[in-house]
Amino acid sequence: MEVDQLQRSFLEYSRLLFHEGFLDGQFSQLQLLQDESNPDFVLEVVSLFFEDSERLLNDLTIALDQQNVDFKKLDAHVHQFKGSSSSIGAQRVKNVCIAFRNLCDEQNAEGCLRCLQQVKQEYLLVKTKLEALLRLEQQIVAAGGAIPMLNEFC
Amino acid sequence: MEEMRSDCSSSGVQELHVLAVDDSLVDRKVIERLLKISCCKVTAVESGRRALQYLGLDGERSSVGFDELKVNLIMTDYSMPGMTGYELLKKIKGSSKLREIPVVVMSSENVLARIDRCLEEGAEEFLVKPVKLSDVERLRDFILKGEEKSEREFSHKRKMSDDSCTLTPSSMASSPSSSDSDLPLSPMSIVSDEPRPKRARLLDDN
Question: B24, A87: Cβ pair inside 8 Å?
Answer without folding.
Answer: yes
